[in-house]
Task: structure prediction
Amino acid sequence: MSANKILGKKLTRHFSMIQAIYIMGYCSIFSYAAVFLLARGFTNSQVGLTLTLSSVLGLLVQPMVASFADKTKKFSLRSIVAMMLLIMILFAVLLFIIPKPVLGVGILYVILLTFFATQVPLVTTMSMDHINNGVPINFSLARGIGSFAYAILSIGLGNLVDDFGAGVIMLVNIALGLLGLALVLSFQKARRSGEGGVEGEVKPTGLLAFAKNNKRFIGVVGSISILFFSHVTISTFMIQIIENVGGSSADMGMANSIAAIVELPAMALFPLLYMRIHNAGLLMKLSGVAFIIKTVVTLLAPSVFWVNVSMSLQFFAYAMFIPASVYYVNEVISSADQNKGQALMGMVMGISGLLGNILGGLMLDSRGGVPFMLTVGLAISVVGFVMLLLIDRSKKVIR
Result:
């Protein structure tokens, strides 16, 4: 076995643990955001506003941090991510200590969400740098293992919240942050484009130049952001959807865990699918169809059982989209601008959150409630899907 293959297996195991920590972090910070904030005295609209503000701040911060990471020679990706993890741990401690007022808790939560969302594309690039150097890290398998870890935590956290209250969510965040810090700092660094000082090597561009040179990519990001509208509202307000059909926090944990469990086999099989359909854009479109079907089933669900059925469609939806979107960036964006490309693709959830969280909260507080929110979400997502079909015509960049 070649040295590269041995290294690839070693780094896949290490990166899988990093993914497990980050996806569990997503579970506790994002999926249980409504549970935590409602327990702190927030209304549905205030929950939506808080998550929307975090999306706005993330949209401002993510590209700036990614551009800095592309250009800096002083700090490695590991050190940048580690610094953000330390800040997250601090804010999680403050949120655990400070139960009220709503304004103070909201500000702290917005900052916590922003720092989490900003570092995720940087962590992705940590693995893609190795892949671009010929080290066969199985990114989709690692991401699938992360989803399995999400499933385990989702079940456990739902029961812990029922037994001990929402404050336990921040204790979990603190523990995950400390574990993530150790794993990120010990991850082997890859040589990135531009570090060797080779004459004629492609250099990173500024944000404005990047946007000008990749207009179709920006359009794809925008269309996916609209497509994801229903996904965001379902994820954020799952507790209200579950309660609408007679369920509890524990039922919400089970629904989320089903969605996460089916992601593992889907993501593990993704490399085989990609070898047959070597077109990440097409695979993203297929996942878009699954997102729409999932929303329809959730809208029509008469019981917790049928909500769980809709969550099982995550196999074809989110589980396919995540690796496809990462490989899409790798196909169409030059290696020197990978951080910016991954960050902008990662901003899909931020843009969707900007649209979905505040509107979802307002719709839930209206007379229409959950059915109205899901119906509007379905219509908006269909528009985004049609836009994606029309915009994506990109070709792979020759590296």
Notes: Confidence is low (pLDDT under 50) at residues 196-200. Residues 3-188+205-391 form a domain with the Growth Hormone; Chain: A; fold (CATH 1.20.1250.20).
